[in-house]
Every structure is written in C-alpha cells, then in structure tokens.
Amino acid sequence: MPRKKAEVIEEGKTAEKSPHQEEIDYKKYEKETSINFNELEEFASVFTCDKGWQKEIESCGIKPVIKNKDGSRQYYIPKDCIKPPKIGKNYDVLAINRKARKIR
Most buried one in 20, 41, 43, 95, CB count within 10 A? Predict the structure, then answer.
C-alpha cells in the first residue's frame, strides 16, 4: 500500500526495528546514503549515515522517520524535492574505469 504521508517518530525515540539497525560499528567507507524511488508512492525514502546530509535535510523542516542507534536516519521526502544529478559533457565512464585500475 503506498504511503500518503510520512509518519514521524517522537523526538528522541528510536524506531522499534529497521533493516539497517544492526549493532555493528561501521567504518566510514561502509556508511552510505541511499535514495529509493517507488513509482506508486509520493515520497522517496532517504537512508543516510552522513551527518551533513542529515543536517541539510532537517534544515528543510523534514524530521527523520527512523533514528538508529548507529547514528543513521531515514527520511521520507516528496519526490519533487529531489533533483537527479546532472552529468557533464565530459563524463567518460571508460576513463574513470582506467584510472581506477591504475590505482589498484
């Protein structure tokens, strides 16, 4: 069933259970931000461990739906508030892959 409204948990409380809420000490490279769109829903789901993203989202008046013990948070944001990234004319996937192979 599609979500019509983002439900917010009470301030200072954590959600009961989240798929991301494991008792793991993540390293910085393991922390992620993921944005999920579903055609049937009005909102995009944003899961992030990044404090900068959290601050930016919350400065727009959006409250987290889930606050996990590891510091990660999940938000529901209206899809029209999220713009896809623009890729410049000089974006060359093959060149990026060649550089990545040299580093390894």
Answer: 43
**In 42-68, which positions are buried (b, 16+ CB within 10 angstroms) versus exposed (e)?**
ebbbbbbbbeebbeebeeeebbbbbbb
**Which 3 state secondary structure label does DSSP give 47?**
strand
Token pair belonging to 45: 């789901």
Evaluate if residue 45 carries a pLDDT over 90: yes
Query: The tokens 């393991």 sit on which residue?
Result: 30
Q: For residue range 11-27, what is the model confidence (pLDDT) as tens digits?
A: 444 444 445 445 556 67
- Bridge-based pairing of strands 33-36 and 73-78 is unpaired
